[in-house]
Amino acid sequence: MFYNKTMALLEIKKYTDKSLKGKASPIGKIDVNIQHLIDDMIETMHAARGIGLAANQVGVLKRLCVIDTSLNEDRKSLIILINPVLVEKEGTVEAEEGCLSIPGYMTTIKRSEKVFVKGSNREGKSLEIEGTGLLARVLQHEIDHLEGLLIIDRISPIKREFFKRRYKKAFKEINSTK
Ligand code: NI
After folding, report:
1. Active site includes 113?
2. Given pLDDT bands bounded at 50, 70 and 90, which one contains residue 176?
3. Cα-trace Rg, the chain
4. Which CATH number does the domain housing residue 119 bear?
């Protein structure tokens, strides 16, 4: 399938934008607008050197995310995931994590070590992904975004208070300049 449209970079919403706190709605028909959104999100993720991007992060509250753990643009690891559901998880592991919506902030997050996610691809065909390591982490991070959750919602209240004091003002300034 080909989608002929010039791709465009989207603005990545930053903390404290309210779209990051919203719960995304399921996608019904995968129409031409969704196809364009997918293309633009892939372009935006790669341009930002990200490994995952959820629709909430570009201000669209729909259950869609794109993931590419290859960290380059050969797109071999590109996953387009519509209406993802985490159906199984196993083990726990802690690792450093960041988010394109909270630039400059990294923190240790405890996640499941292995996950099994169901959803659909851009053609509407069902997709089943078993992820371990980095992929498992990104899948959980992106599904969190669709629920309106950020990495700072996954840290201890003390760490969150520290984050807010140190970073909230700075991010408000980032937002107000746009
Ligand atoms: Ni993120």
Report:
1. no
2. low
3. 16
4. 3.90.45.10
User: What is the band of 1 on the pLDDT scale with cuts at 50, 70, 90?
Assistant: very low
Q: Which domain holds residue 128?
A: 18-176
CA of 144 to the centre of ligand 1 (A): 8
Compute how many other C-beta atoms are within 10 angstroms of the C-beta atom of residue 120.
Answer: 16
Asked whether residue 93 is assigned to any structural domain, the reply reads: yes
- The pLDDT of residue 95 is above 60: yes
Residue 4 located in a structural domain? no
Tell me the three state secondary structure of residue 10.
Answer: coil
Domain count within the chain: 1
115 φ, ψ (degrees, to nearest 5): -135, 155
* pLDDT tens profile 14-38: 999 999 999 999 999 999 999 999 9
Q: How confident is the model at residue 57 (pLDDT cuts 50, 70, 90)?
A: very high
Q: Residue 68: inside a domain, yes or no? A: yes
Q: Considering the candidates 96, 97, 128, 142, report the single residue annotated as catalytic.
A: 142
Using the mean position of ligand 1's atoms as its centre, give its distance from the Cα of residue 98 in Å. Answer: 7
Mean pLDDT of the residues in the chain? 92
Catalogue the E-assigned strands of the chain: 52-54, 64-68, 78-98, 106-120, 126-132
C-alpha 110 to ligand 1 mean position (Å): 15
For residue 54, the CA-to-ligand 1 centroid distance in Å is 7
